[in-house]
Sequence to fold (388 residues):
Amino acid sequence: MNYNMIALNDDLEGGRKVVEVEIQSDIISFTLNEKEFSWPISDLEFQIGGASKGLIYIKNSNFSSIILYTRDKKILKNEFVVQHPNILKSSKKISGFYNQRKVFYSSLLLFLIALPIVFYAFRSSIIKSIANRVPVEWEIKAGNKLFETLKNQYDIIEDSSLSARFDTMFIPLVNAAGTPDIDYQFYLCSDPSLNAFALPGGHIVINLGTINKIERIEELYGVIGHEIAHVTQRHHLRGVISNLSTFLIFQGLLGDEAGLIGAIGESAGRLESLFYSRSFERESDEIGFNYMKEAHIDPKGMVEFFERIKREYEIDENLLVQEDEMVKDSTQFESTSLDKIKSFVSTHPNIDERIEYLNKRICDEMVSFESKDFELDKFQKYIQQKIK
Fold:
């Protein structure tokens, strides 16, 4: 059988030349510069080499001035070559190396194929892990910036006595949240719609309509528990990270956070960053429910508030999906963002599903707390006076 190989020799022009090598019985033979060479296979040594270990070198222990090499690995399985024990041993060693390399590259290929699948399967956990590495102080600064922007768009009442009243009311939920690094600040907005929203770092704004329309104070506690959960679970930051490119997220996962932090800083101060995904809303229901239990506040208040929303807006699930998609479309945000913040419906979809989830937890966990002895009418009149 014949093989094309390269002969290396200092006397050759350029130090190398292509030769045709024939292997027959116990001899390999070739012609170099019109001179015939016949090497006994028993005198040969096979080695691997080259920059990528892709070459097979054939050396003659009795004729060291000429070396042959080839990329053709089939030579290792030549019937005459494998008959020689010393060559067979080298051949197996080389074949084993190539087999290991084949396994390595195959595994690497499978890893590279699986990597994006795994990344997207665990994307939420990855984003949460990255967010947890961002200092809380950064979120507080972003929240302060957003609050200043919102004050220019809304009639937000900043009143020290009202703030003190809110602090006293909601301290059980704040204590249940267990986040001493966050200074929660509660504000009233004169907007008559049913809504409240949380900013990163602890600013929580409650619409006048929310307070005026509730029939039990536990409903308001349910709203606040939900909004505090948005803060503690860092939904604003996680949402901003989620909207960044996969490349930046992957960089952050690997510890290279410079580009990631820069991109977060550009997005975090925009109003559209306040919209949370459906999964974040569900998580806030779950965590807010836990806070209410911890504070011994009847979590049925959260259910009652969702039922109030449902009655108020006569929710149509299909409409909610359309609204949800529109909010995600940044090209439409400039004309709709401020109006949509006013609507609890647009930012809190799937009301029926969430009511069902909360009722199931109340039943399964046998949660039962007495209603608070709270003069709601008097409180609502007090709030109304702060608007005038």
